[in-house]
User: Fold this.
Amino acid sequence: MDSIRLPVYISLNNKWKFIYSHKPKDIKINLNNLTSVKPTYFRCIESCSACCERPDGFVFISEQEVEKAARYLEMESDEFLLHFTRKMDDRLILANGENDHCVFLEEQQCLIYEERPAQCRAYPFWPENLKNRHTWQRTKEECPGIGQGPLYGKEEILNILDHHK
Assistant:
């Protein structure tokens, strides 16, 4: 697949709304045009939490990821859904926690790190971070794990992007 389609949302009074004109509007990012995709050293630093503290973000979570995270927390999936998720349009997202940070962020530690959703695992290789040199530079300044750890080749990064859809 050549492109990733991401719905466009805006935050109004701390509630995310899907933007409509006459038709639903999507951001289209062509993977072949991502100029910032270059081989990159990266290792997630578990105690960092920079990506988890973004107040304007949201994390999509699938039913399978809910089951894994609930099992990890030794609770029932229904209880997990009730306390830690909400619906945005027809998709499931993690609820916001303190200061609009991720609900699972506590003292700069992810409480479900081992079973965090795929969207979290894909960071920093999100389409919005890689769309141009400026956004990638900003991401590098925010994320201390970039420049450390194993080398991710361009093809591997594009594969991560392709699965992040």
Residues 3-163 form one domain.
